[in-house]
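Q: Give me a protein?
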Amino acid sequence: MRQDELVEWLFINSGSILRYRIAVEWMDVSDQERKRLLHNSLTTSEVQRWLANLKESRFIHGSQDTHAENAFSKLLDYGFNCTDPVFAESAEHLLDCPFQLWDSIVLLPFLVRAGYTDHPRVQELLTSRFEKLHQTVQRGCFDFYLSSEEASGVPKAWQGKPIYRDEFGHQEGYPLPTCYDFYTLAYCPSMQSLGDFASISESIVAFLSDTRFQSKMGGYGWDKAGRRCYAAGRIFLACVIPARLVLFLELGARFTSARQSIWFQQGLSSLEKYRTSRGTYILPSSLLMEKTGYQLYGGFHMGLGENRRSPSALELESTFHILYIYKRIQNK
Protein backbone atom coordinates (compact mmCIF):
# COMPACT_ATOMS: atom_id res chain seq x y z
CA MET A 1 0.00 0.00 0.00
CA ARG A 2 1.06 3.58 -0.67
CA GLN A 3 1.26 6.01 2.25
CA ASP A 4 -2.18 7.50 1.51
CA GLU A 5 -3.62 4.00 1.41
CA LEU A 6 -1.93 3.12 4.70
CA VAL A 7 -3.39 6.22 6.33
CA GLU A 8 -6.85 5.31 5.03
CA TRP A 9 -6.40 1.73 6.28
CA LEU A 10 -5.38 3.02 9.70
CA PHE A 11 -8.33 5.40 9.88
CA ILE A 12 -10.88 2.75 8.92
CA ASN A 13 -9.58 0.04 11.23
CA SER A 14 -8.50 1.94 14.35
CA GLY A 15 -10.46 2.82 17.46
CA SER A 16 -11.64 6.29 18.46
CA ILE A 17 -8.38 7.41 20.10
CA LEU A 18 -6.02 6.49 17.28
CA ARG A 19 -8.53 7.60 14.67
CA TYR A 20 -8.51 11.12 16.11
CA ARG A 21 -4.69 11.19 16.16
CA ILE A 22 -4.60 10.05 12.51
CA ALA A 23 -6.96 12.86 11.54
CA VAL A 24 -4.79 15.38 13.40
CA GLU A 25 -1.59 14.24 11.69
CA TRP A 26 -2.64 13.46 8.12
CA MET A 27 -6.20 14.31 7.20
CA ASP A 28 -7.80 17.53 6.06
CA VAL A 29 -11.13 17.24 7.85
CA SER A 30 -13.78 19.88 8.45
CA ASP A 31 -14.09 21.57 11.84
CA GLN A 32 -17.33 19.70 12.40
CA GLU A 33 -15.70 16.35 11.64
CA ARG A 34 -12.71 17.16 13.84
CA LYS A 35 -15.01 18.02 16.74
CA ARG A 36 -16.88 14.75 16.25
CA LEU A 37 -13.67 12.73 16.26
CA LEU A 38 -12.38 14.65 19.28
CA HIS A 39 -15.63 14.00 21.16
CA ASN A 40 -15.46 10.28 20.37
CA SER A 41 -11.91 10.10 21.71
CA LEU A 42 -12.57 12.23 24.80
CA THR A 43 -15.53 10.11 25.86
CA THR A 44 -13.60 6.82 25.92
CA SER A 45 -12.90 5.41 29.37
CA GLU A 46 -9.20 5.27 28.48
CA VAL A 47 -8.92 9.02 27.83
CA GLN A 48 -11.11 9.87 30.82
CA ARG A 49 -8.78 7.85 33.05
CA TRP A 50 -5.69 9.69 31.84
CA LEU A 51 -7.40 13.09 32.09
CA ALA A 52 -8.26 12.33 35.70
CA ASN A 53 -4.69 11.18 36.36
CA LEU A 54 -3.32 14.45 34.98
CA LYS A 55 -5.83 16.69 36.75
CA GLU A 56 -5.27 15.00 40.11
CA SER A 57 -1.49 14.64 39.79
CA ARG A 58 0.40 15.98 42.80
CA PHE A 59 3.88 14.84 41.80
CA ILE A 60 5.64 15.53 38.51
CA HIS A 61 8.39 12.89 38.39
CA GLY A 62 7.65 9.24 39.00
CA SER A 63 6.73 5.89 37.51
CA GLN A 64 3.02 5.73 38.35
CA ASP A 65 0.19 6.56 35.97
CA THR A 66 -0.82 9.33 38.38
CA HIS A 67 2.55 11.10 38.10
CA ALA A 68 2.21 14.11 35.82
CA GLU A 69 4.98 13.16 33.39
CA ASN A 70 3.28 9.92 32.37
CA ALA A 71 -0.28 11.23 32.20
CA PHE A 72 0.82 14.35 30.31
CA SER A 73 2.85 12.46 27.71
CA LYS A 74 0.09 9.90 27.24
CA LEU A 75 -2.54 12.50 26.41
CA LEU A 76 -0.18 14.33 24.06
CA ASP A 77 0.37 11.08 22.18
CA TYR A 78 -3.41 10.81 21.91
CA GLY A 79 -3.37 14.09 19.98
CA PHE A 80 -4.56 16.61 22.60
CA ASN A 81 -3.11 20.07 23.24
CA CYS A 82 -3.92 23.33 24.99
CA THR A 83 -6.55 24.28 22.40
CA ASP A 84 -8.76 21.46 23.70
CA PRO A 85 -10.66 22.87 26.73
CA VAL A 86 -11.10 19.55 28.50
CA PHE A 87 -7.40 18.77 28.23
CA ALA A 88 -6.41 22.31 29.23
CA GLU A 89 -8.57 22.08 32.34
CA SER A 90 -6.62 19.01 33.43
CA ALA A 91 -3.19 20.42 32.54
CA GLU A 92 -3.13 24.07 33.48
CA HIS A 93 -2.64 23.60 37.22
CA LEU A 94 0.91 22.51 36.34
CA LEU A 95 1.76 25.91 34.88
CA ASP A 96 1.75 27.61 38.25
CA CYS A 97 2.57 24.85 40.70
CA PRO A 98 5.80 25.18 42.74
CA PHE A 99 8.62 22.89 41.66
CA GLN A 100 12.37 22.44 41.92
CA LEU A 101 14.90 22.53 39.07
CA TRP A 102 14.64 18.83 38.27
CA ASP A 103 10.84 18.97 38.17
CA SER A 104 11.04 21.85 35.68
CA ILE A 105 13.31 19.82 33.39
CA VAL A 106 10.87 16.90 33.56
CA LEU A 107 7.77 19.03 32.97
CA LEU A 108 9.07 21.34 30.22
CA PRO A 109 8.81 18.95 27.25
CA PHE A 110 5.14 18.29 27.86
CA LEU A 111 4.24 21.95 28.40
CA VAL A 112 6.04 22.75 25.15
CA ARG A 113 4.36 20.05 23.08
CA ALA A 114 0.99 20.99 24.56
CA GLY A 115 1.42 24.50 23.17
CA TYR A 116 2.24 26.55 26.25
CA THR A 117 5.51 28.02 24.93
CA ASP A 118 4.13 31.58 25.10
CA HIS A 119 3.48 31.32 28.83
CA PRO A 120 6.01 33.57 30.65
CA ARG A 121 7.11 30.87 33.05
CA VAL A 122 7.65 28.37 30.27
CA GLN A 123 9.58 30.97 28.26
CA GLU A 124 11.84 31.67 31.21
CA LEU A 125 12.50 27.99 31.90
CA LEU A 126 13.15 27.22 28.23
CA THR A 127 15.60 30.06 27.78
CA SER A 128 17.52 29.12 30.90
CA ARG A 129 17.61 25.42 30.02
CA PHE A 130 18.73 25.83 26.42
CA GLU A 131 21.41 28.33 27.40
CA LYS A 132 22.74 25.79 29.90
CA LEU A 133 22.80 23.00 27.32
CA HIS A 134 24.38 25.24 24.69
CA GLN A 135 27.20 26.08 27.11
CA THR A 136 27.88 22.36 27.48
CA VAL A 137 27.97 21.92 23.72
CA GLN A 138 30.33 24.85 23.26
CA ARG A 139 32.77 23.28 25.70
CA GLY A 140 32.84 20.18 23.50
CA CYS A 141 33.97 17.95 26.37
CA PHE A 142 32.92 14.31 26.69
CA ASP A 143 35.11 13.59 29.72
CA PHE A 144 32.20 13.47 32.14
CA TYR A 145 33.68 11.40 34.96
CA LEU A 146 36.16 11.90 37.78
CA SER A 147 39.42 10.01 37.59
CA SER A 148 40.10 7.48 40.36
CA GLU A 149 42.37 10.00 42.05
CA GLU A 150 39.77 12.77 41.85
CA ALA A 151 37.12 10.41 43.26
CA SER A 152 39.22 9.36 46.25
CA GLY A 153 36.88 11.18 48.65
CA VAL A 154 33.72 9.48 47.37
CA PRO A 155 31.94 7.46 50.11
CA LYS A 156 32.99 3.81 50.17
CA ALA A 157 29.67 2.49 48.86
CA TRP A 158 30.29 4.31 45.56
CA GLN A 159 34.01 3.74 45.19
CA GLY A 160 34.89 2.46 41.71
CA LYS A 161 31.65 3.67 40.14
CA PRO A 162 31.48 6.38 37.44
CA ILE A 163 31.07 9.71 39.26
CA TYR A 164 30.18 12.84 37.32
CA ARG A 165 32.47 15.82 37.55
CA ASP A 166 30.84 18.74 39.34
CA GLU A 167 30.53 20.67 36.08
CA PHE A 168 28.32 17.89 34.66
CA GLY A 169 26.23 17.22 37.78
CA HIS A 170 23.52 18.78 39.88
CA GLN A 171 25.97 21.43 41.09
CA GLU A 172 25.72 23.07 37.66
CA GLY A 173 22.04 22.42 37.07
CA TYR A 174 22.24 19.08 35.22
CA PRO A 175 23.99 20.51 32.14
CA LEU A 176 24.10 17.26 30.12
CA PRO A 177 21.30 16.61 27.59
CA THR A 178 18.68 14.39 29.20
CA CYS A 179 15.87 12.39 27.60
CA TYR A 180 13.55 15.22 28.70
CA ASP A 181 15.68 17.81 26.93
CA PHE A 182 15.62 15.77 23.71
CA TYR A 183 11.81 15.68 23.83
CA THR A 184 11.69 19.43 24.51
CA LEU A 185 13.96 20.17 21.54
CA ALA A 186 11.92 17.91 19.26
CA TYR A 187 8.67 19.78 19.85
CA CYS A 188 9.87 23.32 20.57
CA PRO A 189 9.06 26.00 18.00
CA SER A 190 11.50 28.80 17.24
CA MET A 191 12.40 31.06 20.17
CA GLN A 192 13.35 34.70 19.58
CA SER A 193 15.02 34.93 22.99
CA LEU A 194 17.68 32.46 21.84
CA GLY A 195 18.70 34.09 18.58
CA ASP A 196 19.52 31.41 16.02
CA PHE A 197 17.42 28.74 17.72
CA ALA A 198 17.60 26.31 14.78
CA SER A 199 21.40 26.32 14.92
CA ILE A 200 21.48 26.04 18.72
CA SER A 201 19.03 23.14 18.79
CA GLU A 202 20.91 21.31 16.01
CA SER A 203 24.18 21.72 17.91
CA ILE A 204 22.67 20.21 21.06
CA VAL A 205 21.22 17.26 19.13
CA ALA A 206 24.56 16.78 17.34
CA PHE A 207 26.25 16.61 20.74
CA LEU A 208 23.86 14.01 22.12
CA SER A 209 23.98 12.03 18.84
CA ASP A 210 27.77 11.82 18.95
CA THR A 211 28.99 8.26 19.55
CA ARG A 212 31.06 9.56 22.46
CA PHE A 213 27.83 10.60 24.17
CA GLN A 214 25.74 7.62 23.08
CA SER A 215 28.35 5.22 24.47
CA LYS A 216 28.14 6.66 27.99
CA MET A 217 27.08 4.27 30.73
CA GLY A 218 25.48 6.91 32.91
CA GLY A 219 26.82 7.46 36.38
CA TYR A 220 26.36 9.01 39.81
CA GLY A 221 26.23 12.56 41.03
CA TRP A 222 28.25 13.28 44.16
CA ASP A 223 26.50 15.26 46.87
CA LYS A 224 29.53 16.23 48.91
CA ALA A 225 27.56 18.12 51.55
CA GLY A 226 25.28 15.13 52.17
CA ARG A 227 28.15 12.63 51.79
CA ARG A 228 26.20 10.48 49.39
CA CYS A 229 25.86 9.79 45.68
CA TYR A 230 22.66 9.62 43.66
CA ALA A 231 21.96 7.64 40.50
CA ALA A 232 21.90 9.48 37.17
CA GLY A 233 22.13 6.55 34.81
CA ARG A 234 21.98 5.96 31.10
CA ILE A 235 18.19 6.25 31.05
CA PHE A 236 18.55 9.75 32.52
CA LEU A 237 20.74 10.85 29.61
CA ALA A 238 19.47 11.24 26.04
CA CYS A 239 20.93 7.85 25.12
CA VAL A 240 19.18 5.29 22.95
CA ILE A 241 18.04 2.10 24.64
CA PRO A 242 15.93 -0.56 22.89
CA ALA A 243 12.73 0.15 24.82
CA ARG A 244 12.66 3.77 23.70
CA LEU A 245 14.13 3.37 20.23
CA VAL A 246 10.84 4.20 18.48
CA LEU A 247 10.31 7.21 20.74
CA PHE A 248 13.84 8.50 20.07
CA LEU A 249 13.45 8.04 16.32
CA GLU A 250 10.30 10.17 16.48
CA LEU A 251 12.21 12.84 18.40
CA GLY A 252 15.33 12.74 16.25
CA ALA A 253 13.56 12.76 12.89
CA ARG A 254 13.30 16.56 12.99
CA PHE A 255 17.07 17.12 13.12
CA THR A 256 19.68 16.75 10.39
CA SER A 257 22.36 15.90 12.95
CA ALA A 258 20.26 13.06 14.35
CA ARG A 259 19.21 11.70 10.95
CA GLN A 260 22.86 11.52 9.90
CA SER A 261 23.94 9.77 13.09
CA ILE A 262 24.79 6.11 13.44
CA TRP A 263 22.18 5.48 16.13
CA PHE A 264 19.36 6.93 14.00
CA GLN A 265 20.26 5.24 10.73
CA GLN A 266 20.85 1.85 12.33
CA GLY A 267 17.72 2.18 14.44
CA LEU A 268 15.44 3.09 11.56
CA SER A 269 16.93 0.38 9.37
CA SER A 270 16.34 -2.21 12.11
CA LEU A 271 12.59 -1.50 12.06
CA GLU A 272 12.22 -2.19 8.35
CA LYS A 273 12.50 -5.92 8.91
CA TYR A 274 9.10 -5.74 10.59
CA ARG A 275 7.41 -4.48 7.45
CA THR A 276 4.70 -6.78 6.12
CA SER A 277 4.12 -7.73 2.49
CA ARG A 278 1.32 -5.17 2.22
CA GLY A 279 3.38 -2.31 3.65
CA THR A 280 2.11 -2.24 7.23
CA TYR A 281 4.39 -2.90 10.21
CA ILE A 282 4.20 -5.26 13.16
CA LEU A 283 6.87 -4.35 15.71
CA PRO A 284 7.68 -6.57 18.69
CA SER A 285 5.65 -5.59 21.74
CA SER A 286 8.95 -4.92 23.53
CA LEU A 287 9.42 -1.89 21.26
CA LEU A 288 5.89 -0.57 21.90
CA MET A 289 5.28 -1.37 25.54
CA GLU A 290 2.17 -0.28 27.39
CA LYS A 291 2.39 -0.78 31.12
CA THR A 292 2.97 1.13 34.33
CA GLY A 293 6.34 2.87 34.35
CA TYR A 294 8.28 5.90 33.16
CA GLN A 295 7.50 6.93 29.59
CA LEU A 296 10.67 8.88 28.85
CA TYR A 297 13.01 6.80 31.00
CA GLY A 298 11.81 3.45 29.72
CA GLY A 299 9.28 3.86 26.91
CA PHE A 300 6.56 2.22 28.97
CA HIS A 301 3.62 4.08 27.40
CA MET A 302 3.93 3.66 23.64
CA GLY A 303 0.38 2.40 23.15
CA LEU A 304 -2.12 4.52 21.22
CA GLY A 305 -5.36 3.40 22.75
CA GLU A 306 -5.90 0.19 20.83
CA ASN A 307 -7.01 -2.90 22.75
CA ARG A 308 -3.83 -4.97 22.94
CA ARG A 309 -5.92 -8.14 23.22
CA SER A 310 -6.99 -7.56 19.62
CA PRO A 311 -4.78 -9.30 17.03
CA SER A 312 -4.71 -6.12 14.92
CA ALA A 313 -3.73 -3.68 17.71
CA LEU A 314 0.03 -4.01 17.41
CA GLU A 315 -0.10 -3.76 13.61
CA LEU A 316 -2.18 -0.58 13.78
CA GLU A 317 0.01 1.10 16.39
CA SER A 318 3.26 -0.04 14.79
CA THR A 319 2.22 1.27 11.39
CA PHE A 320 1.20 4.61 12.87
CA HIS A 321 4.52 5.06 14.68
CA ILE A 322 6.58 4.27 11.58
CA LEU A 323 4.52 6.56 9.36
CA TYR A 324 4.86 9.30 11.98
CA ILE A 325 8.66 8.95 11.98
CA TYR A 326 8.74 9.30 8.19
CA LYS A 327 6.34 12.23 8.31
CA ARG A 328 8.69 14.08 10.70
CA ILE A 329 11.63 13.29 8.42
CA GLN A 330 9.77 14.72 5.42
CA ASN A 331 8.67 17.83 7.37
CA LYS A 332 12.16 18.58 8.67
Notes: Residues 56 and 201 are 33 Å apart (CA to CA). The mean pLDDT is 94. The longest strand covers residues 218-223.
